[in-house]
Structures are given as structure tokens and as C-alpha cells.
Amino acid sequence: MLIVFVFAVTPMPIDVMGLAAGNLRLPVWKYYLPCVIGKSIKYIVMAYLGYWGWAAFSKNTNLQTLLLVCGIAIVVTIALVGLAILLENWDWKRARKS
């Protein structure tokens, strides 16, 4: 159960642990309980870090800098999503030709 908790708290792939737990016939509650507790801790910590980081960032900058950073983040996100779609589409076309 400790391994499931560690996988849930850290950015390790919990899906792999779920497959292993199913293969080992681990009872659902022995997998689900540490997974829920670990994920809850992880997301609460992430929310607090985001709140404190934004508060520190916004306190020391003006509105123009905030808008610039948000704009850059939006543009980068759109570019990465577009690249992912393009690569996925290219991979599917290449797989169909084979």
C-alpha cells in the first residue's frame, strides 16, 4: 500500500501501478484508499503552491507584465497543442500507408 501511495503523490505513472495491482489481485480498497489519499495530498500541495506563487508574482509586478506573461503562456499552450495534433495526424497517416 505504501508503493501505491508513493506513486499517487509523485508524478510517477499511477496507471502502471494500477495494472500491477490488478495483476496481483490486490483488493480494490487496498489500492483505491492510498491512491485517493496520495492524489488529494498532491493536488492540495499543488493548489497552495500555485496560490502562493501567484500571490508573490502579482505582488511584485504590474498589470502589463501580468498580461504579457499570461499572453505568452496562452500562445505557448496553443502552439504545443497544435504541434501535438500535427504530429499525431502525421503518425496516423504514416501508419495507414504501411
Question: Could you characterize what this model shows?
Answer:
The structure is a single chain. The protein has 98 residues and is mostly helical. The protein has two domains: 60 residues, no CATH class; 38 residues. Helix content is 87%, strand content 0%. The protein has four helices and no strands. Helix 1 runs parallel beside helix 3. The longest helix has 35 residues. It is flat, with a radius of gyration of 20 Å. The termini are far apart. The model has no long low-confidence stretch (mean pLDDT 82).
In short:
The protein is built from 4 helices and no strands. With 98 residues, it is mainly alpha-helical.
**Number of continuous helical runs:** 4
Tell me the radius of gyration: 20 Å
Structural class: mainly alpha
| N-to-C span | 44 Å
Low-pLDDT runs:
none
Please indicate the percent range of residues in DSSP E strands (runs of 2 or more).
Answer: under 5%
Q: Describe the global form.
A: flat
Keywords:
mainly alpha, flat, 98 residues, 2 domains, single chain
Question: How is the secondary structure organized here?
Answer:
Blueprint: H1 2-9, H2 14-23, H3 28-59, H4 63-97
